[in-house]
Amino acid sequence: MVARGVLDGVLVADFSRVLAGPLATMTLADLGADVVKVERPGTGDVTRSWLPPTDDSGRSTYYLAVNRNKRSVALDLSTPDGATVARELALRADVLVENFAPGTMERFGLGYRQLVDDNPRLVYASCTGFGAGSALPGYDFLVQAVGGLMSVTGAPDGPPTKAGVALVDVLAGQNLATGVLAALLVRQRTGRGQRVEVSLLGSLLAALVNQASAYLNAGTVPVRMGNAHPSIAPYETLQAADRPIAVAVGNDAQFGRLAAVVGGVTPDDARFASNADRVRHRAALVALLEERLSTRTAAEWVADLTAAGVPCGVVNPIDEAFALAERLGLDPVVTLAGTRSVACPIGLSENPANYRSPPPALGEHTATG
């Protein structure tokens, strides 16, 4: 017997598109919620047309990434009939999620204040780029730039660089889902919903963690350091004979084990006696380590270092990353009607994530939504 999802019986009206909102609603759907995805007739979520790559059916793999377990209804919100049906859905919903530019939902008669009197239990979740008071466009790439992430990403002598995925959208989507879950928990006690607001910029600033704290508490403005860490050494990629390996030495004991396996360095050297010493003499330390590592392959070093209890690994491409997760028993892939996607990363012993349907075709459930 399949366990009930944590959110069984929760109806989500999903007016979001692209990534942050759909990721949040897919998380809710994986946890059991009934998510109705409202899309523009004819075109739908813009990611349906973001290609290549495509799957064997010609569907955008971007769209497929964050839309499983949902129903799709096609509604033109600019028409009276479309707006009426959308409002009826919103008034039945437990949760509404949207990531339009501020003011857009109000134009359609779907703003929080326009709904809350008739549906006081509604949890109304909004994701904006720069807050409800700003009309600036909320694109992940833009926020990575103006929010400081690019300034600390990339080689020291290279240009500011974005992360390899739309990381800010992902962070905002996770924050949005967390906010919705918190609001639903409060509603159990009070009987009332509330507004949940998340911005891309706010999500990024919170995710800068130690880098933000360095500025806020020490007046230090972080800079790009490539794969090196500003406060720990060696905590970076080091070149072996064939390819780099990632070494994550977080304390003196681990450094001692690294030194014993690799040779050429020793904790008795005053330059490397403590983490602070190693950070100050990072360049000399890296040069000595890479001289030794260049004598053998990355796989050989990783085997010996892992056996000695040193956190390390090869730098995998994505296919090898999935293979690693499979070997570790993480079951990282879900297949639904031939469509593959990454499994929900949240493990619940009594009410695990469940997977019911592949990403829907545009308007597939309009008659039944």
Largest sheet: 6 strands, parallel
Share of helix, binned: 25-40%
The named CATH superfamily of the largest domain = Crotonobetainyl-coa:carnitine coa-transferase, domain 1
Provide the spatial order of strands within the biggest beta sheet: 3-2-1-4-5-6
Average pLDDT rating: 96
Count helical runs: 14
Report on the architecture of this protein.
This protein has 369 residues and is of the alpha/beta class. It has 2 domains: 11-207 and 331-342, Crotonobetainyl-coa:carnitine coa-transferase, domain 1 (Rossmann fold), CATH 3.40.50; 235-239 and 244-314, formyl-coa transferase, domain 3 (2-Layer Sandwich). The chain is built from 14 helices and 11 strands. It has helices at 20-30, 61-65, 80-92, 104-107, 112-115, 140-146, 167-190, 200-207, 209-218, 252-262, 275-280, 282-293, 298-307, 318-327, and strands at 11-15, 34-39, 70-74, 95-98, 123-128, 195-199, 235-239, 244-248, 312-314, 333-336, 339-342. A 6-stranded parallel β-sheet has the order 3-2-1-4-5-6, sandwiched between helices. A 3-stranded antiparallel β-sheet has the order 7-8-9, with helices on one face. The protein has a two-stranded antiparallel ribbon with strand order 10-11. Helix 2 (61-65) links the parallel strand 2 (34-39) and strand 3. Helix 1 packs across helix 7. The model has no long low-confidence stretch (mean pLDDT 96).
